[in-house]
Design a protein that fits this description.
- The structure is a single chain.
- It is built from 6 helices and 12 strands.
- The strands form 2 sheets. Strands 2, 3, 4, 5, 6, 9 and 10 form a 7-stranded antiparallel beta sheet that branches.
- It is 30% helix and 30% strand.
- Strand 5 and strand 6 form a beta hairpin.
- The chain has one domain: Phosphatase 2c, domain 1.
- The protein has 272 residues and is α+β, with helices and mostly antiparallel strands.
Length: 272
């Protein structure tokens, strides 16, 4: 069982909300309508995967909204067009899904470029894209930009993604210390994003395992810029209903100044 909630707020400074999010299920199902076969020879059958996406648009005015919404919509269209959904995972199949996801994300820039061609006012738009999909205890993550995925497991908050920013690159190269990341002037300068200009997209991919009781958090940087990891951890540690935890996370970002749009998706897993 998976409980999922989500919440998005434009914040206290921005005039509009350029964040977009989506949580959904993907299902393969056989349902008996009528038969003379005795039970339990044939039973109803279903496999269910859960998908969650956060996209943080950029470009100002309506352009950021268009970018984030377009990226999610086109990505889902590409999934729907795939004739052979993989619904049972081993390492090889998980890697195949991640490869497909990488290829699909690579096509999103073309969709943004086409939208900008039709409407030149959108030419500077772009978006981050961070997604997670789970099937049973398997978790797949794909990430572009500086939104984040966290896993709260066994009382610890583990960040699963790395910010694709100039400040993070400088830290990786040893030019600045990790302690400087939260205040460095280049922490908002993205080194990878999905843009209408067709710049190269670097997709971070992961295949991990989930345990019963784990909480999975996807969020835009409107949360993490305002709320420290320790404070996020403290909220998730309360183990409140997911909708209540989402509200608490957004409220914390607003209380700290709400300088950006803030979006959160939270999933809580109960596994055999």
């Amino acid at each position: 069982m998976v409980d999922i909630a989500a919440l998005s707020h434009q914040g206290l400074v921005r005039s509009n909300n350029e964040d977009s999010f989506l949580a959904l299920t993907l299902e393969r199902r056989i349902r008996t309508l009528i038969t003379n076969l005795p039970d339990p020879i044939f039973q109803d059958y279903a496999e269910v995967a859960y998908g969650m996406i956060v996209a943080d648009g950029m470009g100002g005015a309506a352009a950021g909204e268009v970018a984030s919404r377009t990226a999610i919509s086109v990505l889902i269209d590409l999934v729907i067009e795939t004739p052979d959904w993989i619904m049972r995972l081993d390492e090889e199949r998980a890697n195949q899904i991640l490869k497909r996801t990488d290829e699909r994300i690579g096509k999103l820039a073309t969709a943004l470029a086409e939208a900008a061609r039709i409407n030149p006012g959108l030419s500077g738009m772009g978006t981050t894209l961070t997604l997670a999909a789970s099937l049973g205890s398997d978790l797949l993550v794909a990430h572009v930009g500086d939104s984040r995925v966290y896993l709260f497991t066994e009382g610890q908050l583990v960040r699963l993604t790395k910010d694709q920013t100039m400040a993070q690159l400088l830290a990786d190269l040893g030019v600045i210390s990790a302690d400087d990341l939260t205040t460095h002037h280049a922490r908002h300068v993205l080194t990878s994003a999905i843009t209408a200009t067709g710049s190269k997209i670097e997709v971070e991919l992961h295949h991990l395992g989930l345990a019963s009781g784990d909480q999975l958090l996807l969020c835009s940087d409107g949360l993490t810029e305002m709320v420290a990891d320790e404070d996020i951890k403290a909220i998730l540690k309360e183990h409140n209903p997911v909708a209540q935890s989402c509200q608490a996370l957004v409220d914390a970002a607003l209380a700290a100044g709400g300088k950006d749009n803030v979006t959160v998706i939270l999933a809580k897993y109960q596994l055999p």
